[in-house]
Amino acid sequence: MSTSPNLIAYATITRREVVRILRIWMQTLLPSAITMTLYFVIFGRMVGSRIPPFANGITYIDYIVPGLIMMAVITNSYGNISSSFFGAKFGRHVEEMLASPMPSWVILTGYVTGAVLRGLMVAAIVLVISLFFTRIHLYHPWITLSTVLLTAIVFSLAGFVNAVYAKKFDDISLVPTFVLTPLTYLGGVFYSVNQLGTPWREISHANPILYMVNAFRYGLLGISDISMTVAYAVMIGFAVTLTALGLTLLNRGIGLRS
Amino acid sequence: MTTIPALDVVELKKTYPNGVEALKGISLRVEPGDFFALLGPNGAGKSTLIGILSSLVNATSGDAKIFGVSIREQRSAAMRLIGLVPQEVNFNMFEKPFDICVNQAGFYGIPRAEAGVRAEKYLKQLALWDKAFGIARAMSGGMKRRLMIARAMMSEPKLLILDEPTAGVDIEIRRSMWKFISGINAAGTTVILTTHYLEEAEQLCRNIAIIDKGRIIENTGMKSLLSKLDVETFVLDLAQPEAALPEVHGVKFTRIDDVTLEAEMSREHDLNSMFAALTARGIAVRSMRNKANRLEELFVRLVETGTTDAAKVAA
Predict the structure, then answer these.
(1) Nearest Cα residue in chain A from B92
(2) Is B56 in Cβ contact with A102 (below 8 Å)?
(3) B interface mutation test: which of A1, A15, A93 has the most B CBs within 10 A?
(4) What DSSP designation does B246 have?
(5) pLDDT confidence of residue B229
(6) CA angle, B269 as apex, B267 and B275 as ends, to 5°?
(7) SS3 per-residue string spanning A58-102
(8) Cα-trace Rg, chain A
């Protein structure tokens, strides 16, 4: 039985992305390892050791591990696709794909898979590093896995949309700097939003990253500030909306075809 | 029985968002197996047309069919039939030529094992095999252009479109590229070539269209077009200096220097009668060449006049 041409095309883009990630591992995999190690040392050990454990015996370093893994997944999946796809646009080799018989959904899924794989690679690295500082409890494996996967997909798609609209390299660094980083820090990585007073607690619920971090924390530690149903609705809602947007941009050639 | 054309462009229009009308409703037909020249000055609309055919540019209206397959209604199926060698280098400079070719095949759904075989075949045919596993960025300009041809051949297209493939390439490499492309055409692939080297088009192509300001101003056979050139100018290098201009019926001589003359003559007169007359006057000609490429002369006149009327061209 012959393999579907679309499957071959999808595998080609995915392989090319993975080769790129591994070829420039000092830019793609190493920075998160170093940054997260510093977070574990400074916030986990030095600052965290002075914070009393949570009511159910969870130490502060245990509490921040899920958030830090999610932070790495968000940054890397977004950064991978935005830099790779914008690089292809800038170097014009995106034309190789646009002039080929590949349908738009193959291009989108190929790039998203590449970005998700980088997110998962970095998640695995950060997870291994965290084992040097604490023990990981896996309370709900399927919630843990599905959350990290959905989060990587959502931010890969967001990075793709950013790359399509970007006209210069500055345009792909604006969103991570001015939107993603603040939202991640305010998304309950380092604290529980229940500790916040009104109106900051309510405002925090408008931050999608809050739902992702809490769902992942629930998977690893069994605690969360929000309901899992709402968390999944938010993640799936964003994934569906951004997929539709990405496909529309590709089909119409916005930012890609004259 | 009518054959399905390799390319059938019908009333194709393109207006860019800034209001520039790049194509003003052009229609064009290229037969299967043809070696077709698409010529035009810069900004005439050639690259826009090629962009539309390769789905890199969205047409405003009209359609084009590749071997009967509409690029508007069956984009994927139509793209499977086309190979494109663009004007600008557009591969990833940080990848290896072998990987660039294999990935290109992958985009067309060709299994990796088969892609590897084809990559080796075409990289060898284009004398790039020794560079196949280096970084593409390190290749010379001529090598990069040949790599784009190898890449376009990975899907073994029925219609190969070459947008100025030999621009900036030295004559030796240009000739080797001509040989390769001619071989591809002889094997049955329809080739559409745009170039600013008109001797290239004259030598390689059987049919020609000239596009100017978004309109086709000429679309005919190469021989038929060249036959419209009624006056040709030759440069004669004389064996000895000549003080006076010779007078020969039907030939207008102009002195360039003591040993060089320009002879402008209509096609009604043959070269034999001119040489006979010169010999009778004791004038020996050491060598002779065309002042300009014949197609170049016609091209300039057609674009300048902007007319399809061959009679006006000859006048």
Answers:
(1) A93
(2) no
(3) A93
(4) -
(5) 66
(6) 125
(7) CCHHHHHHHHHHHHHHHHHHHHHHHHHHHHHHHCCCHHHHHCCCC
(8) 19
Do residues B59 and B53 lie in contact, with contact meaning Cβ atoms separated by under 8 Å? no
Q: What is the pLDDT of residues B216-242, one digit of tens each?
A: 988 888 877 777 766 778 888 888 887
Say if residue A15's pLDDT is above 50.
yes
Q: In this predicted model, what pLDDT tens digit does every residue of A20-50 receive, in sequence order? A: 999 999 999 999 999 999 998 998 888 888 8
Give the tens place of pLDDT for each residue, B22-54.
999 999 999 999 999 998 888 889 999 999 999
Is the Cβ pair B90, A91 closer than 8 Å?
yes
3-class secondary structure, B56: coil
How many whole angstroms separate alpha carbon B39 and alpha carbon B16? 21
- Cβ pair A105, A97 in contact under 8 A: no
Predicted confidence at residue A230, as pLDDT, reads: 95
**Using CA atoms, how far apart are residues A164 and A179, in angstroms rounded to an integer?**
17
CB contact under 8 A, A8 and B86: no
> Do B76 and A101 count as a contact with CB atoms less than 8 A apart?
yes
- From A48's Cα to the closest Cα of chain B, the distance in A is 44
Nearest by CB to A102, which of B57, B77, B107? B107
Give the pLDDT confidence score for residue B227 in this predicted structure: 73
What was the pLDDT predicted at B294? 67
Per CB-CB distance under 8 Å, the chain A contacts of B90 are: 91-93, 95-96
Task: For residues B139 and B142, give the distance between their C-alpha atoms in angstroms, rounded to a whole number.
Answer: 8
Dist. CA B193–CA B178, nearest whole Å: 11
CA nearest to B97, candidates B170, B160, B154: B154
Measured CB to CB, residues of chain A less than 8 Å from chain B are 2-6, 8-9, 11-13, 15-16, 19, 88, 91-93, 95-103, 253, 257-258
Contact indicator for A85, A163 with CB cutoff of 8 Å: yes
CB of B146 closer than 8 Å to CB of B127 = yes
Tokens of B43: 């900004």
The pLDDT value given to residue B309: 46
**Does this complex have an ipTM over 0.90?**
no
The DSSP secondary-structure symbol of B248 reads B
